[in-house]
Structures are given as structure tokens and as C-alpha cells.
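Would you kindly consider the sequence and fold I have copied below?
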Amino acid sequence: MKVKEYLHQAYRLDKRIQSHIEEMECLKEMATSVSSPRWDEKVQTSRNSEGNFVRCLERIMDLERRINAEIDNLVALKEQIRCVINEVADTDERMVLRYRYVHNLTWEQIGDELNADRTTVYRWHNAAINHVTLPEDPVKV
């Protein structure tokens, strides 16, 4: 695994968690909505007697378990990334990595934080990537 791929894992995992949370909110909305009554006279012998909300609640509980596991994984990964970043000797390079991969700031935001233009931020970032040493057993995402 390359350095950028390793450092960028936290961003992707965070986005995946956000997507699961949005899906869970939709399911909660579906579970609390009332469906309209059916006026047709269909008779089914093997009709499922559970309401739609029961399936939504089961899905919500599964998603909550998955989200909690992914959050635990994200916390461990970010802690490991912070340790890796703290090993970089140059302060500017370390700050660029921290802002980019821990705080998920854009290049422009990093430049504003560090009072530097974009090319300087890119230069610090490229130098920092060359100074990062990957951990022996990285957290699996």
C-alpha cells in the first residue's frame, strides 16, 4: 500500500459512515410513516403479517451495528495516522498532513490555515509524503 492510499483511508471510511447514517435516517423515516390502507380484496394464504416498519427496524439495527464497528475502526485508524504523521520531522509538512488526512481540509483551506499559497502547500505535501514511514501492521479498513 502506498503512503497516500494509507493516509486517505480515513477519509473514505468517514464518507462511508456518513452514507450509512443517511441511509439509516431514511429507514427511520420509513419506519415511522403510516402506509395507506388497502381497499382491494386480495386474499393471500402466505401473507407476511409483519408490517413494513418491522423490516425497517431490523435494517436499522443492522446498520447501527455496522456504523458502530466502522466508527471504532475509524478511531483506531485516525490514531494510527496521527502517530505516523507525528514522526515527520518538519513542522510545516506535519501540519499539511494533519490538516489534509486527519481534518479532511481542502488544499485552499490548508493554505489559509498555514498562510501559504497552494504551490507551497503542494511542495510541503510532496516532501511530507516522502518522509512518512508506514506502520508495520496498519489498521485494516
Q: What stands out?
A: DSSP finds five helices and no strands in the chain. The two ends are 12 Å apart (CA to CA).
